[in-house]
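Minutes, project check-in
Item: structure for the 207-residue chain
Input as provided by the requester:
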Amino acid sequence: EEQPEIRRNFGLILALTTGYNLSGTLVITNYASDILSDSTRRLPIIIGLVQLLGLISGSVITDRIGRRPLLLVSCFVTTTSLISLSLLLASTTREALDPSRNPVTLWSLVLLMVTVEFAVGAGLNPGRLLLSAELMPNAYRGVGMSLGSAMGWMIALLSLFWYPIIAAAGGPAPQFAFFGCVVGALFLLLAWQLPETKGISFSAGLL
């Protein structure tokens, strides 16, 4: 009788892993300097600090407000930021990214990127790791976490491999729109199916 819950929870783990690796955070971390023509290469340092701040914030509040609310807020903020980022990139030329010409556009893009990094770092990133353990009973936990991790690495490698190829043909905007749609779909799935696991032991069974 536990099989439907096990399948549902395993599907949620795979969805969370997919959503994280297609949230745009990996592309932003690795290609933000190229997208924004940052010759100083300092932007990845700023992004790394924002990610760290997000992770610290997530670790502090996840046991206070619960996994489900934190993940839903994280996905909502990430989705809106990614779609906004895509629209702004689509309407911006590379010349417009010159800070001496259009600093408002440049800093708006930077703000949207760091918002994505913070939102993912505070919710989606730690949430997927917590729920990989909490959603599966002991008998299936190792398999579920291993398969989820393997799938995550595969998606991450593919997204980083294909990004520069697709961006060279059509620019970065369509891919950020795609990332936004993926996280938006994850938001709807979590709102529909994700149980709250705060304070619940899964060692003996499932929710």
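Outcome recorded: Helices lie at 3-21, 25-35, 43-65, 67-90, 103-134, 138-170, 173-193.
No further action items on this chain.
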